[in-house]
Amino acid sequence: MPALIECVPNFSEGRDPEVIRRIADRLDSVEGATLLHVDAGKATNRTVMTVAGSPDAVVEAAFRGIAAAADLIDMRQHSGAHPRMGATDVCPLVPIAGIGMRETADLARRLAERVGRELRIPVYAYEAAQPDPRRKNLSVIRAGEYEGLEEKMKQGAWTPDFGPTAFNAKSGATAIGARDFLVAFNVNLNSTSTRRANAIAFDVREAGRPKRDGHPLTGKVVTDAAGQPVLIPGTLKAVKAIGWYIPEYGIAQVSMNLVDLSVTPLHLAFDEVCRAAEARGVRVTGSELVGLVPLAALLDAGRHYLRKQQRSLGVAEPELIKIAIRSLGLDELAPFNPDERIIEYRLRDTGLARLVEMTVRGFTDETASESVAPGGGSVAAAVGALGAALGTMVANLSSHKRGWDERWEEFSRWAVQGQAIKDELLRLVDEDTRAFERVMAALGMPKGTAEEKSARSAALAAANLGALQVPWQVMQTAYRSFALLREMAEQGNPASASDAGVGALCTRAAVRGAWLNVRTNAAGIKNKAAIEEVLHDGAELEAAAAREEAVILGIVEQKFG
Known about the structure:
Layout: E1 4-7, E2 10-11, H1 17-27, E3 33-41, E4 46-53, H2 55-72, E5 88-97, H3 101-119, E6 123-127, H4 138-142, H5 145-153, E7 174-178, E8 183-189, H6 194-204, E9 209-210, E10 231-232, E11 239-246, E12 251-258, H7 266-279, E13 284-290, H8 295-308, H9 317-328, H10 338-341, H11 343-347, H12 360-367, H13 376-399, H14 408-443, H15 450-479, H16 481-491, H17 497-522, H18 532-560
Parallel strand pairs: 5-7, 6-7
Antiparallel strand pairs: 1-4, 1-5, 2-4, 2-5, 3-4, 8-12, 8-13, 9-10, 11-12
């Protein structure tokens, strides 16, 4: 997979649509970098934009966005609810795929040096881009905000890492860094009180609140030997939070940054704010995500709320996302469109004609056309996906069967396995056609010179091997459905035994159909030693599939009496 990073610059303008548009246009002006999302807030007077793509392209796009903000935003005129110290307040780079944090931090420092040198903006490195542990934390760097920046920069401990050491009154300063994926998540309250929202935020955020002598609100703050406040930690690790009032919505919110979803996932943060709010007589009414969110965060949330209801977790991805949206109240303030807000969905290549996105009629008509693809390989994978889907259906129905409440987890585990098999086979539906297209592309390569012949031969050998590997994957993946289908035929809802039987028929057809494709594609591979093991194991797997089908159909026949 090619290297891919994300950049999430936060600009200190959320009210002037023309300024926001011009900055967004500059961010979106680099080939290889795509502007994914623009989230403007009037009360915060701040806009969060998200751009992703190849590392060099994203770094160039970020520089152009920072330059545009320096031209268009005057910090001397700025006010807003969110802490800030510059026109481009913060600009994090985030590794997504094919690149590590160290390389991403190097890119951040390269960007910071260029911003300081060419735009004459003081820059502080933060998180992974900052070698000094005392200056890694963004909130520490931004303490005092824009209004206190001039005096802060005069202190030797706060000399900028890059750029001029003199205060830039118009642009302020910018923090540029590298970090893991951060989710900005606001929880809505049925209150207009900033004080109560802040109290809830202090209850949950990792830093907690200062310890006081006597009264928890008015007592003297307890300090340590160094004169620093002693803090009472909050309940959520890897969470930063504050409370504020949003006039455009007429509500107070607990605004959180979830800096490590593996420590505190979205659903845990939401549930804990609900608990803390209720303890203070406040009710949570919903939430909002700022910017994009990883797919896994919503899938985990969907499973979490299904688990709380003791319902099967083995439902399809779109259903898990719907459950997460409803449970978290993500659409309370504005519609939440997964295609626009989930980062993996935004980055997927929508230009590809995906067979699995077709209707059943469309797929069948496409197969029946004069084109040789999709062919038997794609159809075998599709039939296998239907077999796995039937087994999953029986598992889900069994988990909800009246009188079987204590068995919901047992059937849920089987349904989750079935969903995974189904999804992999659906991926292989399109992959089989792409493998065929790679063979055709190799055959179409020029073969005039010796060098061209050699390149064509190598490409064709690789393409032919890939064309064999795809149906071999279909065989192995589809075969895994037999364990699910046998269990459902024996232990599942008796009323659905025939569905398990049909699933077994589909799975056997998928394995045998893919085996035919393996043998067909093997004919085009000159190096037979490279595929000897596949041909041996494939023959055994095809025979084993016939035995599994017979066993399952026998169980189903017994159910009929």
